[in-house]
Amino acid sequence: MLTPRFSVDQNDEFVFVNIKLSSIRFSARNVEIVIDDNLFIFSLPPYYLRLRFPGLLLEDERVKSSFVPKEESIKIQIPKKTTGEHFDDLDLTAKLLARLNEPTAGVVPGNGAESKRPLIEEVDEGQSVPSMKDLQKEAENFNWEVEQKPAAELSAEELAGHPKYGFNNVYSDMINATLANGNDINELANPDELKPDDRITQRLIQENLKFDPEYYASDYLIAKYEPENCRIKDILGWQSPYKRLFDKYQSKLAAKPGIGHVPIEFDQAEKDHMADLPRKSYLVDDPRPIYYTIVCLLFAYCYEIRSNEGDSTVESGWSIGKLTPQLSCLDSQLLQSTNFTEKSMLRVVVLTMERRALSYPLVRNYELVKDCWNDVYYVLRCGKRGVLKAILAAREFFRFHDVYYIYCKILLDDLCSWILRDDGCNERILRNLAHALRKEAESVGKKDVVFEKIMTEDSDEMEPVSIDEIEQLAEESYRASQSTV
């Protein structure tokens, strides 16, 4: 059976379902419509549609349906049980398609047959959709401190050389096969065999090797003393559309109690992309690494979009992938399990992304880095819909790429699906995260962003050097060059 394209609208009294029926001969006697509480089923072979609404419906004489031949669609009117009740997120059609008894992604198979396990079926429907009180309690108990706990014991599969990575650490044995096809986002040697701490070690080494003090110093001096010879002024002056949206609705959000969101609209292409997402629930023991992944992806996306003043290029997928450690280094842990000095994971996230942003992109500017953190703040303040819209846009750079598509399979598809779910991404946690992240990003300065480099020609020893020190050396060099002119 085929799932037709459809859209849903509402007023105070009715829900309106518009179903597209392409290239079939319509026969009214073959149409079957079932309405049961919040469940709506439409069947007209070869089409079948099953929707679950956030509120209750009624099946009475007010139910109407009509076929519109010119539009090749059938329009169905369904009364609400409670007149005046507003059904949230009816434009997120993929969310309506999700069923309570979806398979749960406890373990996701890789390439090998050994990694396949049966999916878990949820049997307790009453707990599938959390209450608002549960969501608020979850947000209130959330913190971003580094959790002090013993290193997790490796499973038999991981001990055998199949470490997990990707969304919720459920994937394995999927990256090595892409290396021969030119996966230039990957930065790991033997990525499918490396354990989490080893991935972090390789990531830090690669960042130190990739960072070029002369490149950064040159960009710094040009931006400061010859801004007419670079684009940095225009890049810094560009304003994120998410900031404009948030500023526009800020007064409305402040006056509205409870969890609110900026009314972000999704176009038809975005709705189609959401409809193609995997429909399953997720057993997530600790959602914090997923939120850190969201922050890293948003920063990488904002950096790329701001660098191109709202546009994208053929290199956008590479840039976003390189900047995001969960993609390029399969690193969702970010901090070594033996590191007991760091107290805040958000500080670790900020330092990680700033190091990468000053090592890989074409434009490497510290003021640009800070502006991007501001952009991330406004995306997070736009709530689930803002985050979903941004990550869907980032996902498009990977979805049809011959090699990069693998990152959709191991992370981006599941991440978008999890954000979409009621029991996934939490609006209050996003608001908490936005404020905590902004505070942490403001507390990190140039002296905190440190690389290990060989700084003198007559030495082969690595020594720590901060962005602040590099700028001071650049200033001294510039003044010396000017004094000789």
From TrEMBL:
Q: Which family does it belong to?
A: Belongs to the SHQ1 family.
Recorded hits in PANTHER family, A to Z, give:
PROTEIN SHQ1 HOMOLOG (PTHR12967)
Q: Which GO terms describe its biological process?
A: box H/ACA snoRNP assembly
Q: Which PROSITE patterns match?
A: CS (PS51203)
Report the GO molecular function annotations: unfolded protein binding
Read off the InterPro entries from this record: CS_dom (IPR007052), HSP20-like_chaperone (IPR008978), Shq1 (IPR039742), SHQ1-like_CS (IPR048696), Shq1_C (IPR007009)
Protein species of origin? Dekkera bruxellensis
Instruction: Provide the taxonomic classification.
Output: Eukaryota, Fungi, Dikarya, Ascomycota, Saccharomycotina
Q: Which Pfam families did the record assign?
A: SHQ1, SHQ1-like_CS
One Gene Ontology cellular component term attached to this UniProt record is: cytoplasm
Q: Which residues form the CS domain?
A: 1-91
Annotated protein name in UniProt: CS domain-containing protein
